[in-house]
Structures are given as C-alpha cells and as structure tokens.
Design brief:
This protein is an all-alpha fold and 89 residues long. It has a domain of 36 residues. The protein has 2 helices and no strands. The chain is rod-shaped.
C-alpha cells in the first residue's frame, strides 16, 4: 500500500510540474507592422500555430497507460510467484 501511495504522489507531482510550466512555453507574439504600412502585403509575419497543442496531454496519458501496464504486470508476477510457493510446499 505504501508503494502505491508513493507512486501516486510522485505521479501527481510530475503532472503538476507539467501543467504549471506549460504556460511558460508560449511563443513570441507577432509584432504588428509599423503604422504607415497598414494593409501592406509585403513582408508579412506568418501566422503562428502552436505545435504543442495536444502533445503534452498525449505524453501524459501515454505515461499513465504505461505505468498502469507495468503495475498490472508486477502484480500478476507477484501473484504467480506466491502461487508457485504454495504449490511447491
């Protein structure tokens, strides 16, 4: 039970760290053109689209899924070892 609580505590800290630092990864704002060139078609800054829209969420969910699979694998392995000890007696 202590290992499970420790696992969830560490997972919570990692998730909090990810979501707290996420706003600090913002892109630089596009500078507006000088006042005399309103509507000029030359040298326009490209419209920026964030690449990291769902990447953080995808990585977080992937890590949670992998952690759950690892937890289930270890639990089944421990149960199989206990059954082997009981049947060997």
């Amino acid at each position: 039970m202590k290992k499970m609580i420790k696992f969830f505590a560490i997972s919570s800290l990692i998730l909090c760290a990810i979501f707290i630092t996420k706003p600090s990864v913002a892109e630089d704002p596009i500078t507006p053109s000088p006042p005399g060139e309103h509507g000029a078609s030359g040298n326009q800054a490209p419209a920026g689209a964030p690449i990291d829209g769902g990447l953080g969420i995808l990585l977080t969910l992937g890590a949670a899924y992998g952690g759950r699979k690892l937890y289930i694998y270890k639990k089944e392995k421990k149960k199989a070892a206990e059954e082997d000890l009981e049947s060997g007696s």
